[in-house]
């Protein structure tokens, strides 16, 4: 089991969701890198697994990542886990995968539940195409810029959310997207699991002043209207802005072409 990093999914609430393969892996590696060692210790104790744990989280990931890589290269096997769900998905792990790639260490995934996919499955919204947006910023300006960039997104959008931020997020979702179908998936796999299939407007009216508790995934229906096509004048104006900002005209025309669907040469000619 040497020179391998195992990326192990753990339950998002219900411990019955741990897989036999996850337990076998956690029981057989040399050490486990955990987001919060206290949380993982509880999980391991529940299943009678004893393993050395080291903490690996957002703010120590550079220093600890190198230590983990060194230990794996020295012959130890490691499993990385987070407090709940899949590592690397709005959770630590992404950088460690890159470090493994650079060091030539093999990575093996032991898939487990992920709140985003579980919520999408029961959302009642189209599941064929979706976009995962992670957490929105706490900063209102950044949050609204993020939402604005999704105004014409046609795929179902998935957001992670913390309960104390929910009222403001609901207001912003309604302000930016207008009336859309919205699903709030709360406390999945836990005692108080609740799937609220509502709309952006109804959710503001109902929950903005009486927030929901627990862990939440928000899913917003994609835009149903076709975006009004950009005219050549608009595309050229956009390219000109990019040039004014320092971009080369041919690159600006290329970007404007990608955005508008108009041929690059046409925009370039107008621009000059
Ligand atoms: N890596 C995890 C995964 O794969 O699902 C996500 C970790 S992220 C730090 C935590 C967020 O996931 C929560 O704030 C919430 O939005 C969502 N989440 C986690 N568990 C959940 C649950 N049981 N029900 C609903 N949402 C959950």
Count the strands? Answer: 10
Average predicted confidence as pLDDT: 94
Low-confidence stretches: none
H-E order: EHEHEHEHEHEHEHEEHEHHH
Q: Level of helix content?
A: 40-55%
Strand order of the largest sheet: 3-2-4-1-5
Characterize the largest beta sheet: strand count, sense, and whether it forms a barrel: 5 strands, parallel
Strand content: 15-25%
Oligomer: single chain
| End-to-end CA span | 62 Å
Provide a count of the helices. Answer: 11
Shape: globular
Please compute the radius of gyration using only Cα atoms.
Answer: 23 Å
Ligand kinds: S-adenosylmethionine
Q: Helix- and strand-based class?
A: alpha/beta
Secondary structure layout plus pairing:
Blueprint: E1 4-8, H1 20-28, E2 31-34, H2 37-46, E3 53-55, H3 61-73, E4 78-81, H4 94-103, E5 106-110, H5 115-122, E6 130-135, H6 140-148, E7 156-161, H7 166-177, E8 181-186, E9 194-199, H8 200-207, E10 216-220, H9 232-244, H10 249-260, H11 264-271
Helix pairs in contact: 3-4, 6-7, 7-8, 9-10, 9-11, 10-11
Outline the structure in words.
The protein is an alpha/beta fold and 272 residues long. It is built from eleven helices and ten strands. Strands 3-2-4-1-5 form a five-stranded parallel β-sheet, with helices on both faces. A five-stranded mixed β-sheet has the order 6-7-10-8-9. α2 links the parallel β2 and β3. α7 packs antiparallel against α8 and α10 crosses α11. It is globular. The mean pLDDT is 94. The structure holds S-adenosylmethionine (SAM). S-adenosylmethionine binds next to α5, β7, β8 and β10.
